[in-house]
Amino acid sequence: MVKLPPSPPYPRKKTQYPLYRRLSGLQGQSGQVQKTPTPHWDSIPELYNPQQVSIPTMLSQPWLDGTKIYLTFERPAFLSARKAQAAFSTLNKIWHSTAYSTQTKLCIFNTNMKAVLLYGRETWKNSKSIIAMLQVFTNKCLRKILRIFWLDQIMNIALWKRTNQPRIDLQIRKRKWGWLGHKLRKSSDDIARQALEWNPQGKQGRGRPKNTWQRMVLKEAKGVNKTWAEIKADAKNRVRWKILVEALCSATE
């Protein structure tokens, strides 16, 4: 039997991994998937302090792909929902128990999960995607408390009325305007009071101006025909301010 010569060492075709693996740093230089997972959010808190690390430095990290960059800028809302989900899961025995009434379960939900979910939300810029994420999580928890399964078709408006729960955006707006009135009543030397009227100088870049927290407040005030000067004047009177907040947070939309 004639023995054939060995075949020449042809270059081996490099395995093409999906884009998310190549961008997230899970693929090594040799083309093999590394066993080291992507760094966890809580293991790199220094990346989210703008006083320590600049934005270009943060975006230059090799493990940051498009999805993780999106979650980086919306990290507070993402972590709040995750912490509230963990707190809700630890009380599964209470939600499934028949020894507690529905009213008691809703009180526990408001004092434990809502406090974690909406902590500090009055000072954040809220987008439609963030509001939708928080509202979906709240609806899911309420349906689990009332034992409403996916076969039971019930509208969200009926769910809120049944549990006496306002919309998430109205709760956030009430917290925001309550915090705003508290800061407007402070002296003019207070740093938080000065930050409300701080106007950064510089040339604006191309494109539509970014939506800021102050612009969102002025837009909401415009809905009740209020200017910034009138808002500062009403903040000095607690009775008028309470009427203004009730008019802003009424579910008329």
How does this structure look, described?
By secondary structure, this protein is mostly helical. Among the domains are: 74-165, no CATH class; 171-196 and 212-248, no CATH class. The protein contains 13 helices and no strands. It has helices at residues 19-23, 55-59, 66-73, 75-90, 92-96, 102-117, 128-145, 156-163, 168-184, 191-195, 213-222, 228-235, 238-248. The longest helix is centred in the middle third of the chain and has 18 residues, at 128-145. 9% of the residues are buried. The model is unreliable at 13-73 (pLDDT under 50).
Q: Averaging pLDDT over every residue, what do you get?
A: 75
Specify the structural class: mainly alpha
Largest sheet: none
Question: Helical region count?
Answer: 13
Cα gyration radius (Å): 26 Å
Unreliable residue stretches: 13-73
The oligomeric state of the chains shown is: single chain
Order of helices and strands: HHHHHHHHHHHHH
Overall form:
elongated
* Spatial gap, N to C terminus: 88 Å
How much helix is in the residues?
Answer: 40-55%
Strand content: under 5%
Task: Let me know the number of strands.
Answer: 0
Structural topology:
Elements: H1 19-23, H2 55-59, H3 66-73, H4 75-90, H5 92-96, H6 102-117, H7 128-145, H8 156-163, H9 168-184, H10 191-195, H11 213-222, H12 228-235, H13 238-248
Helix pairs in contact: 4-6, 4-7, 6-7, 9-13
